[in-house]
Amino acid sequence: MDIHQEVDLLRKIPMLARLDTSKLKLLAFTSRLMHYEDGEVLFSINDPADSVYLVIEGEVEIMATTKAGDFTSVVRGVNSLVGEMAVISKSRRSATVRASGHVAALCMEGSIFLQLITSNPDVALDVLRQLSDKLVEAHHTNEALYSQLELHS
């Protein structure tokens, strides 16, 4: 894929759509388009948080680890960010993320991602919206689990 094709691909991503061509070219040069097959791991729990992934094609599973074993806690699809929370908070990965079927994802170094959101308010606002949606989703999941726990007590 040449640089013009990569820029066209990036321009179709809602989070990046408002960036000018020069910024999209820079992002294309500094990021990697990665391909994963079903079951392949993008990153594992407790890994260092050195990059952020933007799902371009397919779905990824966010795996939770409990004493009873691993299970899929949530599935993220096209245009979803994964790995951004650990990069922003400068912590280790809190979950394992693996491909569910074929996945194409744009991999950005953490420092590039942080520079992208600090210098582009529209991108930062989109990231905040995604984080807010994830927080609301986690709250609903916790409420449902708590209700089930009360039923079995």
Automatic annotation (TrEMBL):
CDD domains: CAP_ED. One of its GO terms (molecular function) is protein kinase A catalytic subunit binding. Residues 15-134 form the Cyclic nucleotide-binding domain. This is Cyclic nucleotide-binding protein. It comes from Proteobacteria bacterium 228. Pfam families: cNMP_binding (PF00027). InterPro entries: cAMP-dep_PK_reg_su-like, cNMP-bd_CS, cNMP-bd_dom, cNMP-bd_dom_sf, RmlC-like_jellyroll. Gene3D superfamilies: Jelly Rolls (2.60.120.10). PANTHER family: CAMP-DEPENDENT PROTEIN KINASE REGULATORY CHAIN, CAMP-DEPENDENT PROTEIN KINASE TYPE I REGULATORY SUBUNIT-RELATED. PROSITE patterns: CNMP_BINDING_2, CNMP_BINDING_3. GO terms for cellular component: cAMP-dependent protein kinase complex; cytosol.
